[in-house]
Design goal:
The chain has 234 residues and is an alpha/beta fold. The protein has helices at 42-49, 71-77, 94-101, 107-120, 122-126, 137-149, 167-182, 194-200, 218-222, 225-231; strands spanning 4-13, 16-26, 31-35, 57-62, 65-66, 79-82, 155-159, 186-191, 203-208, 211-216. It has a six-stranded mixed beta sheet, with helices on both faces. Helix 3 (94-101) packs parallel to helix 6 (137-149). It is globular. It starts with a strand and ends with a helix.
């Protein structure tokens, strides 16, 4: 049984169908990439899994059980969503942003998790009293991911984590994604940077106009003529 099972999921915005009977699976400890062009339905898929959007049909099961309908209860089950655009709280310090992410814990447990994040992200410890809005794009992305990890998720949904970042920072973000996977956390990664996403994932799906167009291992899709012509520059 897969850790996460998305089955025949359909999602609509008014008369527009964003997802059409989409099925996706993620096993424990995998990186699963979802690639596709703008408007393909990638963000809608993550928003539905995390409870921010209700499906019109289909199901999402986590560890064999149907997910609750409220986002906070989904986080408590072990699924956390790091949205596109980072969405840090610019008027709060780094430390306070992280404490918001750890709202499930109190006292000693909260402080222990905070220190774990500081080990993983030393720069956040150095600047813990700095306002998030003063950080660079790469630093804000690190903070957004760290804030998500504060809830000790079993699976983390990452929406366009490399968007707008310099190549050297993109490499750092992808090194971090590998570290997260190696720590035992499953990663569902949505990306337009198809080559980068396919190079690190165990499994991948291509979303096109709301449908799953093709799927396979990252290696298989990197060498697929269809994927190469459409998403990898020929």
């Amino acid at each position: 049984m897969a850790m996460l099972e998305v089955t025949d999921l359909s999602v609509s915005y008014g008369y527009v169908k964003a997802l059409k009977r989409v099925s996706v699976e993620a096993n424990e400890g995998e990186i699963v990439s979802i690639i596709g062009s703008n408007g393909a339905g990638k963000t809608s898929l993550l928003r539905t899994i995390s409870g921010l959007k209700k499906p019109t049909e289909g199901s999402v099961r986590f560890q064999g059980e149907a997910l609750p309908h409220k986002p906070n209860k989904i986080v408590a089950k072990g699924i956390v969503h790091v949205p596109e655009g980072r969405k840090t709280f610019s008027g709060l310090t780094i430390r306070d942003n992280l404490l918001v992410g750890g709202y499930l814990f109190k006292g000693k447990d909260l402080e222990e998790e905070l220190q774990e994040q500081y080990k993983l992200f030393p720069i956040l410890k150095e600047r813990q009293n700095q306002f998030a809005g003063t950080l660079s794009g790469g630093e804000q992305q690190m903070l957004a991911i760290s804030r998500g990890l504060m809830s000790r998720p079993k699976i983390i949904l990452l929406d366009e984590p490399s968007l707008g970042l310099a190549p050297i920072i993109v490499n750092q973000v992808y090194d971090l994604i590998r570290q997260i996977r190696d720590s035992g956390i499953t990663v569902l990664l949505v990306e337009q940077n198809a080559r980068k996403a396919l190079s690190i994932c165990d499994k991948a799906y291509v979303l096109e106009n709301g449908f799953i167009h093709i799927s396979g291992t990252g290696e298989e899709l990197l060498h697929s003529d269809t994927v190469r012509k459409a998403y990898l520059g020929g």
